[in-house]
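## tool: complex_structure
## caller: assistant
## args:
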Amino acid sequence: MNQADNIDTLISHFLEHDKKALARLITLAENDPEIARIISSKLRNHSHNSYILGLTGSPGTGKSTLINKLVEFLSDKGFKIGVISVDPTSPYGEGAFLGDRVRMREIILEPNVFIRSVASRGSLGGLSKAVFDIAKLYDAYGMDYIIVETVGAGQSEIDIYNLAYTIILVTVPGLGDSVQVQKAGILEIADILVINKSDLGGDFLKINLNMMLESYTRERGWRPPIIRTIAKEGEGITELFQAIQDHREHVERSGQLNEMKRTHIQKRIQVLIESLLFKQIIQKISMTNEINKATENVLSESQDIYSAVYEILKPFFDKIEKIQ
Amino acid sequence: MNQADNIDTLISHFLEHDKKALARLITLAENDPEIARIISSKLRNHSHNSYILGLTGSPGTGKSTLINKLVEFLSDKGFKIGVISVDPTSPYGEGAFLGDRVRMREIILEPNVFIRSVASRGSLGGLSKAVFDIAKLYDAYGMDYIIVETVGAGQSEIDIYNLAYTIILVTVPGLGDSVQVQKAGILEIADILVINKSDLGGDFLKINLNMMLESYTRERGWRPPIIRTIAKEGEGITELFQAIQDHREHVERSGQLNEMKRTHIQKRIQVLIESLLFKQIIQKISMTNEINKATENVLSESQDIYSAVYEILKPFFDKIEKIQ
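## result:
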């Protein structure tokens, strides 16, 4: 059996909602960009308009427990849910050290639920290629909801903005209220704010979040609601789902959903073009000898680093000038 | 006065330890790569062999307070210290929301101390160009110690490995012990482990850290010590400094320090080459029309995203093939 036959068989199983075929296709797409292309082209007309949620927050805010409960809630309502975890500290990954986190895996056994962890960063920063490929596969598989979990501690986390339609920021009382949202630009892109572990307090955090919200002039016609949850008790999940539905209705009715879909595709094409071009050029040009020579020059201070680099690049710049 | 004169004047003030000239040179280098090159070349023979420390840890572990106390300690001993904060939640940045964090700025007033915050990520992921430029300027200025603070929550944080000689990982009890070190690869690169806020506990965390250390086969001839601190009380800072000195002696004696310096320069040259080449090519090629057309095709599902991208890139790939 050749590879193409193999993929065709897998895809037909996949379209009959075989979770194993889904898992296998994800792995194949991750390992070989050429196969990712083939799969992408074969599934072109199978979109189910999955609704994509982004969920982000600092480590220790209980994102995974919250997702666990939200997924249970959605699954009980009969929805199909695909989770993509980009959080390196997530218990869904292979890195779960302590036994007490293993219970989180229970939801994986639900027939309507599929969970996949991916490496945290793409080669050019931002969400990795795998996240987009998996989201596309989930969509073709027929997921009603796709939940993308990222850890919100750096500027690049706002890249979730380029994939999700509703972004949920999870905070907890006592972690340094401002620390959790400050500077990273996360508050500007959040559509729903969650105060998790709200049995530990949260009144002051709520005041703070409200204050910070005031300082953003929003032109989206949407003021992010602040939902209090105690994820480990399942409290506040109904309210969170209601907020998701409200925001979804808002973006659908206002035309923002369509606009987001267009922008997401456009950005994605741009990123793919840049990364593929880059890879092609780096493959073409090997400069090991030049780099080694420059390293010794800089180490001995006979040349500064920028002069060394420009000396290496000069001939290539001249050639690139001639392209087109 | 033309720019070159201006820079020469600044540099002569800088070499007389004028903090304002240092601040100005950093800003100039940040804003204009061409000036960064000029400064770099003019300061080529002014290295002071600053010892570079990397300090990383999750948000909420008290990194900034710890740095504050460590800097005070080093300054009291008569050392010159330069701090670079790559942590978007650091109180040294402009993003400090709450008044109670402002007290952290006190150390800025010390004549021997200089602190600078930078944006968290470079365009290609990893530490931004500014971090390396500032470290170089600190070195030429005559800093004895350079401390680089990053927030350790993603895989890319391990990039501090490409700049620092001694890496300190800060943890706290109760934040989810495994969460703080798991998967991110930080434990593999840490030379000193700190349990901060150890008045809140930490026995279990210490056992856990020790356990995790066991699972790494180290060929560095160094077992990371675990130091307990209560930064806000200044407790454990002497022990932390002792550990830094021990590790420094270890890398100096074993020849690892020289090897690190060589590797850091080599990696840095590679990154500069790639990012400059990339920028040059992206500038050369504008494909707005092609991208817009492809976006509509993918949105309407008449083309899948990879086919669309390869169709755009094909002619460029053919041209790149002809380079060299």
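## assistant note: Residues 93-103 of chain B have pLDDT under 50 and may be disordered. Chain B is about 50% helix and 10% strand. Handing back to user.
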